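Hi everyone, sorry if this is the wrong subforum. Our group has a chain we'd like a structural model of before ordering constructs, and none of us has done structure prediction before. Sequence below.
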Amino acid sequence: GTVFPSHYEGFGMPVLESMSLATPVICSRKASLPEVGGEAVCYWDNASAATLAECMLRLEEDERWYTLLSKSGLERAQTFTWARTASQLRQFYEQVLA
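Answer:
Right subforum, don't worry. Here is the predicted structure as tokens:
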């Protein structure tokens, strides 16, 4: 799995890249990370090393949960495509210029 204990991210590309490889992710609920990870990652509270350790141990010990995060992360990552991003950016610019 990927452990990404960042306190601030502009987008969360490492989370998305890990999910696109079906790698379970542990990250915080800060900044854009919940928008990227959705319900397909394990969140820790950013304040307690114990909650980070709990997520890590659960990934290690619970094969069903590991597999669930792998599959759901891969599915979630597939919603972030360059074509979709370009389309949304174009729509934004059209609205601003109108």
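For your construct planning: The mean pLDDT is 93. Strands lie at 2-4, 25-28, 42-44.
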